[in-house]
Records
---
Amino acid sequence: MSLDRKIPIEERLNSNAWDVDQRPHIRIIDPDQCRKCDKKPCLYLCPARCYTPGPDGTVLFSHEGCLECGTCRVVCPENNIEWNYPKSGFGVQYRFG
Ligand code: SF4
Ligand code: SF4
Protein backbone atom coordinates (compact mmCIF):
# COMPACT_ATOMS: atom_id res chain seq x y z
CA MET A 1 0.00 0.00 0.00
CA SER A 2 1.47 3.34 -0.97
CA LEU A 3 1.28 6.42 1.25
CA ASP A 4 -1.42 8.37 -0.54
CA ARG A 5 -1.59 11.91 0.89
CA LYS A 6 -5.41 11.77 0.77
CA ILE A 7 -5.63 9.04 3.43
CA PRO A 8 -7.00 10.65 6.61
CA ILE A 9 -4.70 10.60 9.63
CA GLU A 10 -7.22 8.54 11.63
CA GLU A 11 -7.11 5.84 8.98
CA ARG A 12 -3.33 5.81 8.97
CA LEU A 13 -3.23 5.52 12.74
CA ASN A 14 -5.65 2.61 12.59
CA SER A 15 -3.17 0.73 10.43
CA ASN A 16 -0.62 0.64 13.28
CA ALA A 17 -0.40 -2.17 15.80
CA TRP A 18 0.55 -2.08 19.45
CA ASP A 19 1.99 -4.65 21.80
CA VAL A 20 1.08 -2.98 25.06
CA ASP A 21 3.16 -3.45 28.18
CA GLN A 22 1.03 -3.39 31.32
CA ARG A 23 3.51 -1.01 32.93
CA PRO A 24 3.19 2.50 31.44
CA HIS A 25 6.36 3.88 29.89
CA ILE A 26 5.18 7.45 30.47
CA ARG A 27 4.01 8.92 33.74
CA ILE A 28 2.67 12.25 34.96
CA ILE A 29 5.00 12.99 37.85
CA ASP A 30 2.86 15.34 39.95
CA PRO A 31 -0.89 15.68 39.26
CA ASP A 32 -0.96 18.89 41.29
CA GLN A 33 1.30 20.53 38.72
CA CYS A 34 -1.37 19.81 36.10
CA ARG A 35 -3.94 21.70 38.16
CA LYS A 36 -1.71 24.77 37.97
CA CYS A 37 -0.95 24.32 34.27
CA ASP A 38 -3.23 26.82 32.51
CA LYS A 39 -3.01 25.74 28.89
CA LYS A 40 -2.48 22.01 29.34
CA PRO A 41 -0.83 21.54 25.94
CA CYS A 42 -0.64 17.78 26.37
CA LEU A 43 -4.42 17.63 25.89
CA TYR A 44 -4.23 19.24 22.47
CA LEU A 45 -0.87 18.22 21.04
CA CYS A 46 -0.70 14.48 21.67
CA PRO A 47 -1.58 13.04 18.26
CA ALA A 48 -2.92 9.85 19.85
CA ARG A 49 -5.13 11.66 22.39
CA CYS A 50 -3.49 9.83 25.27
CA TYR A 51 -4.16 12.76 27.61
CA THR A 52 -7.72 13.59 28.64
CA PRO A 53 -9.19 16.03 31.15
CA GLY A 54 -9.57 14.60 34.63
CA PRO A 55 -11.45 15.81 37.70
CA ASP A 56 -10.55 19.07 39.42
CA GLY A 57 -8.16 20.31 36.78
CA THR A 58 -6.10 17.15 36.65
CA VAL A 59 -5.14 15.27 33.50
CA LEU A 60 -5.54 11.54 32.96
CA PHE A 61 -3.03 9.61 30.91
CA SER A 62 -3.49 6.34 29.05
CA HIS A 63 -0.37 4.84 27.47
CA GLU A 64 -2.00 2.18 25.29
CA GLY A 65 -2.15 4.15 22.04
CA CYS A 66 1.09 6.06 22.44
CA LEU A 67 2.94 6.70 19.17
CA GLU A 68 6.28 7.34 20.94
CA CYS A 69 6.63 10.70 19.21
CA GLY A 70 7.95 12.53 22.28
CA THR A 71 5.71 15.58 21.81
CA CYS A 72 4.27 15.52 25.33
CA ARG A 73 7.70 15.57 26.89
CA VAL A 74 8.71 18.57 24.82
CA VAL A 75 5.56 20.67 25.26
CA CYS A 76 4.97 20.17 29.00
CA PRO A 77 5.90 23.55 30.49
CA GLU A 78 6.43 22.04 33.95
CA ASN A 79 8.71 19.16 32.96
CA ASN A 80 6.07 17.07 34.64
CA ILE A 81 6.24 14.03 32.40
CA GLU A 82 8.56 11.10 33.01
CA TRP A 83 9.15 9.68 29.57
CA ASN A 84 10.78 6.44 28.50
CA TYR A 85 10.52 4.25 25.47
CA PRO A 86 8.56 1.06 26.08
CA LYS A 87 10.58 -1.96 27.05
CA SER A 88 12.07 -3.91 24.17
CA GLY A 89 9.43 -5.68 22.11
CA PHE A 90 6.57 -3.49 23.34
CA GLY A 91 4.97 -0.36 21.94
CA VAL A 92 3.80 0.79 18.56
CA GLN A 93 4.61 -0.98 15.31
CA TYR A 94 4.28 1.28 12.30
CA ARG A 95 2.94 -0.71 9.39
CA PHE A 96 3.25 1.86 6.61
CA GLY A 97 6.16 4.08 7.56
S1 SF4 B 1 1.37 19.92 29.97
FE1 SF4 B 1 2.38 18.88 31.70
S2 SF4 B 1 1.84 20.01 33.56
FE2 SF4 B 1 0.46 20.69 31.91
S3 SF4 B 1 -1.36 19.41 32.17
FE3 SF4 B 1 -0.03 18.34 30.71
S4 SF4 B 1 1.26 16.93 31.94
FE4 SF4 B 1 0.30 18.44 33.34
S1 SF4 C 1 4.85 10.33 23.11
FE1 SF4 C 1 3.46 11.28 21.58
S2 SF4 C 1 1.80 9.82 21.32
FE2 SF4 C 1 2.88 9.24 23.18
S3 SF4 C 1 1.73 10.23 24.82
FE3 SF4 C 1 3.41 11.63 24.23
S4 SF4 C 1 2.54 13.01 22.66
FE4 SF4 C 1 1.15 11.25 22.90
---
Amino acid sequence: MLHTNQDTSEQPTIIIGSGLAGLSCAFELADQGKKVIVLEAAPYIGGRTANWNEHGMGVESGFHKFIGYYVALPELLERAGIVLDEIVHWETTTNIRHPEAEGTFGLDLLKAPLKTLAGALGNNDLLSPLDKASLAPFFAAGFKDYLANPEELDEIPIKEYAKKHGVTDKALERLIEPLSSGIFFLPIEQYSTYAFFGLFAPAIPRPHLIRIGAFKGGMTQVMTEPLSRAIEERGGQVMTGKPVAHLLVENGAVTGVQLEDGTQMQAEQVVVAANIRRSQLLVGEHFSDQEWCQNFLALEMMPYVTAQFEATEKLAGADHTNFGPGTQLGSFSEQSRTTFQRPTGRASIILVDPDKLIDLPDEEVWELTRNSLHAVDLPNVDTMTQYRIIRGKENFYRLSAGNEKHRPQQITPVPGLFLAGDYTKQPLLATMEGAVISGQRAARGILKGHK
Ligand SMILES: Cc1cc2nc3c(=O)[nH]c(=O)nc-3n(C[C@H](O)[C@H](O)[C@H](O)COP(=O)(O)OP(=O)(O)OC[C@H]3O[C@@H](n4cnc5c(N)ncnc54)[C@H](O)[C@@H]3O)c2cc1C
Protein backbone atom coordinates (compact mmCIF):
# COMPACT_ATOMS: atom_id res chain seq x y z
CA MET A 1 0.00 0.00 0.00
CA LEU A 2 1.50 3.36 -0.99
CA HIS A 3 1.28 6.21 1.47
CA THR A 4 -0.27 9.37 0.10
CA ASN A 5 0.18 11.52 3.19
CA GLN A 6 3.17 13.38 1.63
CA ASP A 7 4.81 15.79 4.02
CA THR A 8 3.74 19.26 2.93
CA SER A 9 6.50 21.09 4.80
CA GLU A 10 8.83 23.01 2.50
CA GLN A 11 12.12 21.28 3.12
CA PRO A 12 12.99 17.73 2.17
CA THR A 13 15.40 15.29 3.74
CA ILE A 14 18.43 15.18 1.45
CA ILE A 15 20.30 11.89 1.18
CA ILE A 16 23.80 11.97 -0.30
CA GLY A 17 24.50 8.72 -2.16
CA SER A 18 22.35 6.10 -3.88
CA GLY A 19 24.02 2.95 -2.57
CA LEU A 20 21.86 0.53 -0.63
CA ALA A 21 22.30 2.62 2.54
CA GLY A 22 20.97 5.79 0.89
CA LEU A 23 18.21 3.96 -0.97
CA SER A 24 17.01 2.04 2.08
CA CYS A 25 16.90 5.26 4.09
CA ALA A 26 15.02 7.04 1.30
CA PHE A 27 12.56 4.18 0.96
CA GLU A 28 11.68 4.19 4.67
CA LEU A 29 11.21 7.95 4.74
CA ALA A 30 9.21 8.13 1.50
CA ASP A 31 7.10 5.20 2.68
CA GLN A 32 6.17 7.29 5.72
CA GLY A 33 5.22 10.26 3.56
CA LYS A 34 8.42 12.26 4.09
CA LYS A 35 9.73 14.39 1.27
CA VAL A 36 13.12 12.92 0.22
CA ILE A 37 15.69 13.71 -2.43
CA VAL A 38 18.59 11.35 -3.11
CA LEU A 39 21.62 13.02 -4.72
CA GLU A 40 24.01 10.61 -6.44
CA ALA A 41 27.36 11.76 -7.84
CA ALA A 42 27.73 8.96 -10.40
CA PRO A 43 25.74 8.77 -13.65
CA TYR A 44 24.13 5.52 -12.43
CA ILE A 45 22.36 4.31 -9.31
CA GLY A 46 23.65 1.75 -6.83
CA GLY A 47 27.15 2.66 -5.61
CA ARG A 48 28.94 -0.59 -4.88
CA THR A 49 25.86 -2.52 -5.92
CA ALA A 50 25.94 -1.22 -9.47
CA ASN A 51 26.78 -2.42 -12.94
CA TRP A 52 27.77 -0.21 -15.83
CA ASN A 53 29.58 -0.16 -19.16
CA GLU A 54 33.34 0.29 -18.85
CA HIS A 55 34.83 1.20 -22.24
CA GLY A 56 32.61 -1.21 -24.13
CA MET A 57 32.39 -4.06 -21.63
CA GLY A 58 29.60 -4.64 -19.11
CA VAL A 59 31.07 -4.66 -15.59
CA GLU A 60 30.03 -4.40 -11.95
CA SER A 61 31.82 -3.24 -8.81
CA GLY A 62 32.66 -6.89 -8.20
CA PHE A 63 30.69 -10.10 -7.90
CA HIS A 64 28.22 -10.04 -5.03
CA LYS A 65 26.73 -12.92 -3.11
CA PHE A 66 23.44 -12.73 -1.35
CA ILE A 67 23.69 -14.60 1.97
CA GLY A 68 20.62 -16.65 2.91
CA TYR A 69 20.45 -15.29 6.46
CA TYR A 70 20.00 -11.65 5.39
CA VAL A 71 16.73 -10.26 6.74
CA ALA A 72 16.60 -6.49 6.21
CA LEU A 73 17.54 -6.55 2.52
CA PRO A 74 15.02 -9.24 1.45
CA GLU A 75 12.27 -7.51 3.44
CA LEU A 76 13.11 -4.18 1.82
CA LEU A 77 13.04 -5.74 -1.64
CA GLU A 78 9.72 -7.40 -0.95
CA ARG A 79 8.15 -4.15 0.22
CA ALA A 80 9.49 -2.49 -2.93
CA GLY A 81 7.80 -5.15 -5.08
CA ILE A 82 11.02 -6.93 -6.08
CA VAL A 83 10.73 -10.73 -5.99
CA LEU A 84 13.92 -12.15 -4.49
CA ASP A 85 13.82 -15.50 -6.26
CA GLU A 86 13.47 -13.71 -9.58
CA ILE A 87 16.71 -11.79 -9.08
CA VAL A 88 18.84 -14.32 -7.16
CA HIS A 89 20.04 -17.76 -8.21
CA TRP A 90 20.72 -19.94 -5.13
CA GLU A 91 23.94 -21.92 -5.35
CA THR A 92 24.10 -25.48 -4.09
CA THR A 93 27.88 -25.90 -3.76
CA THR A 94 31.05 -23.91 -3.31
CA ASN A 95 34.61 -24.91 -4.18
CA ILE A 96 37.88 -24.29 -2.42
CA ARG A 97 40.63 -24.54 -5.02
CA HIS A 98 44.09 -24.66 -3.51
CA PRO A 99 46.98 -25.26 -5.96
CA GLU A 100 47.57 -28.67 -4.28
CA ALA A 101 44.03 -29.84 -3.52
CA GLU A 102 40.40 -29.06 -4.10
CA GLY A 103 37.28 -29.40 -1.98
CA THR A 104 33.59 -29.09 -2.77
CA PHE A 105 31.18 -28.09 -0.05
CA GLY A 106 27.38 -28.33 -0.11
CA LEU A 107 25.67 -25.11 0.87
CA ASP A 108 22.10 -25.91 1.63
CA LEU A 109 21.34 -27.79 4.83
CA LEU A 110 17.65 -27.53 4.11
CA LYS A 111 17.43 -28.62 0.49
CA ALA A 112 20.63 -30.69 0.17
CA PRO A 113 21.43 -31.89 3.71
CA LEU A 114 23.46 -34.93 2.67
CA LYS A 115 25.63 -33.02 0.23
CA THR A 116 26.17 -30.33 2.84
CA LEU A 117 27.15 -32.74 5.61
CA ALA A 118 29.28 -34.84 3.26
CA GLY A 119 31.18 -31.70 2.32
CA ALA A 120 31.88 -30.80 5.93
CA LEU A 121 32.91 -34.34 6.87
CA GLY A 122 34.64 -35.31 3.63
CA ASN A 123 37.12 -33.42 1.45
CA ASN A 124 40.02 -35.18 3.15
CA ASP A 125 42.44 -34.23 0.37
CA LEU A 126 41.95 -30.61 1.22
CA LEU A 127 41.87 -31.02 5.00
CA SER A 128 42.80 -34.14 6.98
CA PRO A 129 40.59 -35.24 9.92
CA LEU A 130 43.28 -33.78 12.21
CA ASP A 131 43.09 -30.39 10.48
CA LYS A 132 39.32 -30.42 10.76
CA ALA A 133 39.45 -31.40 14.43
CA SER A 134 41.76 -28.45 15.12
CA LEU A 135 38.94 -26.11 14.05
CA ALA A 136 36.38 -27.15 16.66
CA PRO A 137 37.96 -25.43 19.73
CA PHE A 138 38.74 -22.39 17.61
CA PHE A 139 35.14 -21.91 16.47
CA ALA A 140 33.76 -22.63 19.96
CA ALA A 141 36.07 -20.05 21.59
CA GLY A 142 35.53 -17.52 18.81
CA PHE A 143 31.75 -17.44 18.95
CA LYS A 144 31.89 -17.23 22.75
CA ASP A 145 34.34 -14.30 22.63
CA TYR A 146 32.32 -12.64 19.89
CA LEU A 147 29.34 -12.44 22.21
CA ALA A 148 31.25 -11.77 25.44
CA ASN A 149 34.18 -9.52 24.43
CA PRO A 150 33.61 -8.10 20.95
CA GLU A 151 35.90 -5.08 21.48
CA GLU A 152 38.81 -7.23 22.63
CA LEU A 153 38.25 -9.67 19.80
CA ASP A 154 38.57 -6.83 17.32
CA GLU A 155 42.09 -6.07 18.56
CA ILE A 156 43.42 -9.49 17.42
CA PRO A 157 44.17 -10.50 13.81
CA ILE A 158 42.56 -13.81 12.84
CA LYS A 159 45.88 -15.55 12.21
CA GLU A 160 47.04 -14.87 15.75
CA TYR A 161 43.70 -15.97 17.24
CA ALA A 162 43.62 -19.16 15.18
CA LYS A 163 47.19 -20.06 16.14
CA LYS A 164 46.42 -19.41 19.80
CA HIS A 165 43.54 -21.88 19.60
CA GLY A 166 45.55 -24.63 17.94
CA VAL A 167 44.38 -24.40 14.32
CA THR A 168 46.86 -26.30 12.11
CA ASP A 169 48.80 -24.43 9.41
CA LYS A 170 46.95 -26.35 6.72
CA ALA A 171 43.52 -25.52 8.14
CA LEU A 172 44.60 -21.91 8.51
CA GLU A 173 45.62 -21.62 4.89
CA ARG A 174 42.95 -23.78 3.31
CA LEU A 175 39.87 -22.87 5.33
CA ILE A 176 40.39 -19.80 7.51
CA GLU A 177 42.05 -17.87 4.69
CA PRO A 178 39.16 -18.40 2.21
CA LEU A 179 36.62 -17.55 4.89
CA SER A 180 38.41 -14.28 5.70
CA SER A 181 40.66 -12.94 2.92
CA GLY A 182 38.39 -14.63 0.37
CA ILE A 183 35.52 -12.44 1.55
CA PHE A 184 37.02 -9.14 2.69
CA PHE A 185 40.35 -9.22 0.80
CA LEU A 186 42.78 -8.52 3.64
CA PRO A 187 45.56 -11.00 4.49
CA ILE A 188 44.98 -13.09 7.64
CA GLU A 189 47.82 -11.24 9.40
CA GLN A 190 45.57 -8.14 9.40
CA TYR A 191 41.99 -9.44 9.26
CA SER A 192 40.02 -8.71 12.44
CA THR A 193 38.86 -11.73 14.46
CA TYR A 194 35.68 -9.78 15.29
CA ALA A 195 34.98 -9.42 11.56
CA PHE A 196 35.65 -13.12 11.01
CA PHE A 197 33.13 -14.32 13.58
CA GLY A 198 30.75 -11.43 12.92
CA LEU A 199 30.09 -12.72 9.42
CA PHE A 200 29.08 -16.17 10.63
CA ALA A 201 27.41 -15.29 13.94
CA PRO A 202 24.00 -14.44 12.40
CA ALA A 203 23.85 -17.99 11.05
CA ILE A 204 24.30 -19.75 14.41
CA PRO A 205 20.62 -19.70 15.34
CA ARG A 206 19.67 -20.40 11.70
CA PRO A 207 22.28 -22.75 10.16
CA HIS A 208 19.76 -23.85 7.52
CA LEU A 209 19.93 -20.31 6.11
CA ILE A 210 23.61 -20.49 5.21
CA ARG A 211 23.20 -20.45 1.48
CA ILE A 212 24.53 -18.02 -1.05
CA GLY A 213 23.00 -16.60 -4.15
CA ALA A 214 24.29 -14.91 -7.30
CA PHE A 215 22.41 -12.07 -8.97
CA LYS A 216 20.51 -12.97 -12.13
CA GLY A 217 21.47 -9.78 -13.94
CA GLY A 218 23.39 -6.57 -13.25
CA MET A 219 22.70 -5.20 -9.78
CA THR A 220 21.59 -1.77 -11.01
CA GLN A 221 19.06 -3.34 -13.36
CA VAL A 222 17.63 -6.02 -11.09
CA MET A 223 17.90 -4.34 -7.69
CA THR A 224 18.86 -0.71 -7.26
CA GLU A 225 16.94 0.83 -10.19
CA PRO A 226 13.71 -0.96 -9.21
CA LEU A 227 14.33 0.18 -5.63
CA SER A 228 14.77 3.72 -6.83
CA ARG A 229 11.50 3.46 -8.81
CA ALA A 230 9.72 2.28 -5.66
CA ILE A 231 11.02 5.40 -3.87
CA GLU A 232 9.75 7.61 -6.68
CA GLU A 233 6.35 5.88 -6.60
CA ARG A 234 6.20 7.00 -2.97
CA GLY A 235 6.89 10.61 -3.89
CA GLY A 236 10.69 10.65 -3.44
CA GLN A 237 13.25 11.82 -6.00
CA VAL A 238 16.48 10.04 -6.96
CA MET A 239 18.84 12.18 -9.03
CA THR A 240 22.11 11.00 -10.64
CA GLY A 241 25.04 13.18 -11.73
CA LYS A 242 24.65 15.40 -8.63
CA PRO A 243 27.93 15.36 -6.67
CA VAL A 244 27.65 17.11 -3.32
CA ALA A 245 30.69 19.28 -2.54
CA HIS A 246 29.83 20.63 0.94
CA LEU A 247 27.34 20.49 3.75
CA LEU A 248 25.69 23.80 4.61
CA VAL A 249 26.00 24.57 8.31
CA GLU A 250 24.33 27.35 10.33
CA ASN A 251 24.78 27.81 14.06
CA GLY A 252 26.24 24.33 14.43
CA ALA A 253 23.34 22.61 12.61
CA VAL A 254 23.33 21.09 9.12
CA THR A 255 20.79 22.92 6.99
CA GLY A 256 21.45 21.68 3.46
CA VAL A 257 24.06 20.87 0.82
CA GLN A 258 26.03 22.60 -1.90
CA LEU A 259 26.58 20.73 -5.14
CA GLU A 260 29.85 20.84 -7.05
CA ASP A 261 28.24 23.21 -9.58
CA GLY A 262 27.56 25.68 -6.75
CA THR A 263 23.81 25.02 -6.42
CA GLN A 264 22.64 25.17 -2.82
CA MET A 265 19.73 23.08 -1.55
CA GLN A 266 18.12 23.55 1.85
CA ALA A 267 17.02 20.51 3.84
CA GLU A 268 15.32 19.64 7.09
CA GLN A 269 17.91 16.91 7.60
CA VAL A 270 20.87 15.65 5.60
CA VAL A 271 21.78 11.97 5.57
CA VAL A 272 25.38 11.48 4.44
CA ALA A 273 25.25 8.05 2.76
CA ALA A 274 28.34 8.49 0.61
CA ASN A 275 31.24 6.05 0.74
CA ILE A 276 33.50 6.32 3.78
CA ARG A 277 36.15 8.72 2.47
CA ARG A 278 33.69 11.17 0.91
CA SER A 279 31.65 11.05 4.11
CA GLN A 280 34.73 11.79 6.23
CA LEU A 281 35.58 14.77 4.00
CA LEU A 282 32.05 16.20 3.99
CA VAL A 283 31.61 15.85 7.74
CA GLY A 284 35.22 16.53 8.78
CA GLU A 285 35.21 19.90 7.01
CA HIS A 286 32.84 21.29 9.65
CA PHE A 287 33.00 19.08 12.70
CA SER A 288 36.59 17.85 13.06
CA ASP A 289 36.87 19.69 16.38
CA GLN A 290 34.19 17.43 17.90
CA GLU A 291 35.26 14.24 19.67
CA TRP A 292 32.76 11.93 17.95
CA CYS A 293 33.96 13.23 14.56
CA GLN A 294 37.65 12.79 15.44
CA ASN A 295 36.90 9.18 16.32
CA PHE A 296 35.12 8.74 12.96
CA LEU A 297 38.01 10.36 11.08
CA ALA A 298 40.32 7.75 12.62
CA LEU A 299 38.37 4.95 10.89
CA GLU A 300 40.72 3.62 8.22
CA MET A 301 39.87 2.62 4.65
CA MET A 302 40.95 -0.31 2.51
CA PRO A 303 41.04 -0.56 -1.28
CA TYR A 304 39.54 -3.34 -3.37
CA VAL A 305 40.62 -4.74 -6.71
CA THR A 306 38.67 -7.04 -9.02
CA ALA A 307 39.42 -8.59 -12.40
CA GLN A 308 36.50 -9.25 -14.75
CA PHE A 309 36.75 -10.87 -18.15
CA GLU A 310 34.89 -12.26 -21.13
CA ALA A 311 36.16 -15.37 -22.92
CA THR A 312 35.23 -17.74 -25.70
CA GLU A 313 35.08 -20.63 -23.20
CA LYS A 314 33.47 -20.75 -19.77
CA LEU A 315 35.96 -20.77 -16.92
CA ALA A 316 34.08 -23.36 -14.88
CA GLY A 317 31.29 -25.91 -15.21
CA ALA A 318 28.92 -24.01 -12.92
CA ASP A 319 28.28 -20.42 -11.88
CA HIS A 320 29.12 -20.81 -8.23
CA THR A 321 31.51 -19.34 -5.70
CA ASN A 322 35.12 -20.51 -5.66
CA PHE A 323 37.87 -19.57 -3.25
CA GLY A 324 41.55 -19.64 -4.18
CA PRO A 325 43.69 -19.85 -1.02
CA GLY A 326 47.43 -19.90 -1.62
CA THR A 327 46.99 -17.67 -4.73
CA GLN A 328 46.04 -14.07 -5.55
CA LEU A 329 42.42 -15.19 -5.96
CA GLY A 330 40.20 -14.30 -3.03
CA SER A 331 36.92 -15.51 -4.41
CA PHE A 332 35.71 -15.84 -7.96
CA SER A 333 32.87 -17.05 -10.10
CA GLU A 334 31.90 -17.87 -13.63
CA GLN A 335 28.88 -15.62 -14.32
CA SER A 336 27.80 -16.34 -17.87
CA ARG A 337 24.75 -18.35 -16.74
CA THR A 338 23.63 -15.85 -14.09
CA THR A 339 24.75 -12.22 -13.76
CA PHE A 340 26.10 -11.54 -17.25
CA GLN A 341 24.24 -14.10 -19.33
CA ARG A 342 25.88 -15.05 -22.63
CA PRO A 343 26.64 -18.25 -24.51
CA THR A 344 30.39 -17.90 -24.05
CA GLY A 345 32.43 -17.17 -20.91
CA ARG A 346 32.29 -14.31 -18.36
CA ALA A 347 33.99 -14.39 -14.96
CA SER A 348 34.66 -12.09 -12.02
CA ILE A 349 37.44 -12.33 -9.46
CA ILE A 350 38.02 -10.49 -6.20
CA LEU A 351 41.75 -10.31 -5.55
CA VAL A 352 43.44 -10.59 -2.17
CA ASP A 353 45.87 -8.13 -0.63
CA PRO A 354 44.51 -5.06 -2.46
CA ASP A 355 47.06 -2.78 -0.73
CA LYS A 356 49.75 -4.42 -2.88
CA LEU A 357 47.70 -4.33 -6.08
CA ILE A 358 45.84 -1.04 -6.00
CA ASP A 359 48.53 1.00 -7.78
CA LEU A 360 49.78 -1.67 -10.20
CA PRO A 361 49.01 -1.19 -13.91
CA ASP A 362 46.07 -3.21 -15.24
CA GLU A 363 48.40 -5.47 -17.27
CA GLU A 364 50.29 -6.57 -14.15
CA VAL A 365 47.09 -7.22 -12.18
CA TRP A 366 45.75 -9.26 -15.08
CA GLU A 367 48.99 -11.29 -15.31
CA LEU A 368 48.77 -12.15 -11.60
CA THR A 369 45.12 -13.14 -12.05
CA ARG A 370 45.89 -15.31 -15.06
CA ASN A 371 48.77 -17.06 -13.31
CA SER A 372 46.63 -17.72 -10.26
CA LEU A 373 43.82 -19.22 -12.36
CA HIS A 374 46.37 -21.51 -13.99
CA ALA A 375 47.71 -22.48 -10.54
CA VAL A 376 44.25 -23.76 -9.59
CA ASP A 377 43.89 -25.57 -12.89
CA LEU A 378 41.48 -23.28 -14.76
CA PRO A 379 43.25 -22.94 -18.15
CA ASN A 380 40.21 -21.55 -19.96
CA VAL A 381 41.34 -18.15 -18.75
CA ASP A 382 43.54 -18.22 -21.86
CA THR A 383 40.45 -17.83 -24.06
CA MET A 384 39.97 -14.32 -22.61
CA THR A 385 38.79 -11.82 -25.25
CA GLN A 386 38.66 -8.70 -23.06
CA TYR A 387 39.19 -7.88 -19.40
CA ARG A 388 38.72 -4.91 -17.08
CA ILE A 389 40.36 -4.25 -13.73
CA ILE A 390 37.78 -2.53 -11.53
CA ARG A 391 39.17 -1.00 -8.36
CA GLY A 392 38.32 1.48 -5.63
CA LYS A 393 40.55 3.18 -3.08
CA GLU A 394 38.06 4.80 -0.78
CA ASN A 395 34.94 2.67 -0.56
CA PHE A 396 35.49 0.24 2.30
CA TYR A 397 36.25 0.72 5.94
CA ARG A 398 39.24 -1.46 6.79
CA LEU A 399 38.25 -4.75 8.39
CA SER A 400 41.62 -5.03 10.08
CA ALA A 401 42.15 -5.45 13.81
CA GLY A 402 41.45 -2.34 15.88
CA ASN A 403 39.06 -0.43 13.60
CA GLU A 404 35.65 -1.43 14.95
CA LYS A 405 35.73 1.18 17.73
CA HIS A 406 35.94 3.99 15.17
CA ARG A 407 32.70 3.16 13.34
CA PRO A 408 30.24 6.02 13.96
CA GLN A 409 26.56 5.79 14.93
CA GLN A 410 23.92 6.76 12.37
CA ILE A 411 22.44 9.42 14.67
CA THR A 412 25.09 12.08 15.26
CA PRO A 413 25.22 14.76 17.97
CA VAL A 414 24.94 17.43 15.24
CA PRO A 415 21.39 18.72 14.65
CA GLY A 416 20.22 17.89 11.13
CA LEU A 417 23.06 15.44 10.42
CA PHE A 418 22.66 11.66 10.04
CA LEU A 419 25.06 9.07 8.65
CA ALA A 420 24.29 5.90 6.72
CA GLY A 421 26.62 3.45 5.04
CA ASP A 422 28.02 0.00 5.66
CA TYR A 423 30.91 1.59 7.58
CA THR A 424 28.57 2.99 10.26
CA LYS A 425 28.03 0.96 13.40
CA GLN A 426 25.84 -2.07 12.72
CA PRO A 427 26.55 -5.77 13.13
CA LEU A 428 26.62 -6.91 9.49
CA LEU A 429 30.07 -5.54 8.56
CA ALA A 430 30.65 -4.27 5.02
CA THR A 431 27.74 -6.07 3.39
CA MET A 432 24.59 -5.20 1.48
CA GLU A 433 22.60 -6.23 4.55
CA GLY A 434 24.72 -3.95 6.75
CA ALA A 435 24.19 -1.02 4.36
CA VAL A 436 20.41 -1.52 4.45
CA ILE A 437 20.38 -1.75 8.26
CA SER A 438 22.39 1.48 8.49
CA GLY A 439 19.96 3.33 6.20
CA GLN A 440 16.99 2.08 8.17
CA ARG A 441 18.56 3.20 11.44
CA ALA A 442 19.16 6.69 10.07
CA ALA A 443 15.55 6.83 8.84
CA ARG A 444 14.25 5.65 12.20
CA GLY A 445 16.24 8.41 13.90
CA ILE A 446 14.67 11.02 11.62
CA LEU A 447 11.17 9.62 12.02
CA LYS A 448 11.55 9.60 15.80
CA GLY A 449 12.33 13.29 15.61
CA HIS A 450 16.02 13.24 16.55
CA LYS A 451 17.46 16.65 15.84
C1 LIG B 1 34.02 -6.10 -5.04
C2 LIG B 1 32.93 -6.09 -4.02
C3 LIG B 1 32.33 -7.27 -3.63
C4 LIG B 1 31.34 -7.28 -2.67
N1 LIG B 1 30.73 -8.46 -2.35
C5 LIG B 1 29.67 -8.45 -1.51
C6 LIG B 1 28.95 -9.65 -1.28
O1 LIG B 1 29.25 -10.69 -1.85
N2 LIG B 1 27.88 -9.60 -0.42
C7 LIG B 1 27.51 -8.45 0.21
O2 LIG B 1 26.52 -8.46 0.96
N3 LIG B 1 28.19 -7.29 0.01
C8 LIG B 1 29.25 -7.27 -0.82
N4 LIG B 1 29.94 -6.11 -1.07
C9 LIG B 1 29.68 -4.95 -0.20
C10 LIG B 1 28.46 -4.13 -0.59
O3 LIG B 1 28.52 -3.77 -1.94
C11 LIG B 1 28.47 -2.86 0.26
O4 LIG B 1 28.53 -3.19 1.63
C12 LIG B 1 27.22 -2.00 0.06
O5 LIG B 1 26.82 -1.96 -1.27
C13 LIG B 1 27.54 -0.60 0.57
O6 LIG B 1 26.47 0.28 0.33
P1 LIG B 1 26.57 1.78 0.83
O7 LIG B 1 25.30 2.43 0.44
O8 LIG B 1 27.00 1.81 2.24
O9 LIG B 1 27.80 2.42 0.02
P2 LIG B 1 28.01 2.63 -1.55
O10 LIG B 1 27.34 1.56 -2.31
O11 LIG B 1 29.47 2.78 -1.73
O12 LIG B 1 27.25 3.97 -1.88
C14 LIG B 1 27.79 5.26 -1.70
C15 LIG B 1 27.26 6.14 -2.82
O13 LIG B 1 27.58 7.49 -2.54
C16 LIG B 1 27.90 8.11 -3.76
N5 LIG B 1 28.66 9.34 -3.45
C17 LIG B 1 29.92 9.42 -2.96
N6 LIG B 1 30.28 10.70 -2.79
C18 LIG B 1 29.21 11.45 -3.17
C19 LIG B 1 28.97 12.85 -3.22
N7 LIG B 1 29.90 13.73 -2.84
N8 LIG B 1 27.78 13.27 -3.67
C20 LIG B 1 26.81 12.40 -4.07
N9 LIG B 1 27.00 11.05 -4.05
C21 LIG B 1 28.18 10.59 -3.59
C22 LIG B 1 28.70 7.06 -4.49
O14 LIG B 1 28.80 7.34 -5.87
C23 LIG B 1 27.88 5.82 -4.18
O15 LIG B 1 26.87 5.62 -5.11
C24 LIG B 1 30.93 -6.07 -2.05
C25 LIG B 1 31.49 -4.86 -2.48
C26 LIG B 1 32.48 -4.86 -3.46
C27 LIG B 1 33.07 -3.56 -3.91
